[in-house]
Design brief:
Number of helices: 8
Strand content: 5-15%
CATH topology of the largest domain: Helix Hairpins
Helix content: 40-55%
Number of strands: 3
CATH class of the largest domain: Mainly Alpha
CATH superfamily of the largest domain: Fe,Mn superoxide dismutase (SOD) domain
Structural class: mainly alpha
CATH architecture of the largest domain: Orthogonal Bundle
Strand order of the largest sheet: 2-1-3
Bound molecules: fe (ii) ion
Distance between the termini: 24 Å
Number of domains: 2
Amino acid sequence: MTTDLSRRQILATAATTILASSPLWAHAADKTEAPRFELPALPWDAAALDPVISASTIAQHHGKHHAAYVNNLNRLLPTSTLIDADSLVEIVQRSARNEARRPIFNNAAQVWNHTFYWQSLRPKGGGTPPLELAKRIDADFGSLTALREATLTAATEQFGAGWVWLVLDKSQKKLAVVKTGNADTPLTQENLVPLATIDVWEHAYYLDYQSRRKDYAAAVFDKLLNWDFVAANLAKA
Ligand SMILES: [Fe+2]
């Protein structure tokens, strides 16, 4: 997973990595050398989510869109004061709500969001969550069906590009569904811990679903959502 730690920035690739808390890169000792992020490998084969999400969509989404965010970030960082950051999460958090750092924020957040999205999905996912998680969902939403409805409503109501998230709201001590626009991410909100996400940018679904975003979100929830990833993130929150 890591190569030449003294020279390269590392983006975690293991499907079980909890990105919110993991060091994603390592600096040379004096932090003078420009680090580089790498496009993380998908945690499954590009065709593994077919027919819910086609191999063509995954190839474009990962190989073009996600890769472009990584490349843009690597191009922007060397001239930024953020070059001393110790992780991708730190870059996202320090560039949030800062207009001068908006280009870095957009690309860094999109790198993180997409890596988290791939891990939120798995072949033959969806279905019934693990028992303890299912109990928590029942307690906080009323039922899995209610969580599903909240997710589809958020996906439908998000105006334009964005993301739908299952989060732990630490201030309320409850699970919640939130939506964010463009590159925005719960990482920048102190009380929210992301547990899973669905990308609702058009590039995530247009080849397979055209404008039927709700159908895409429903199919992801029902057939791809990685409940083990949710449970692992919740356990560490
Ligand atoms: Fe995307």
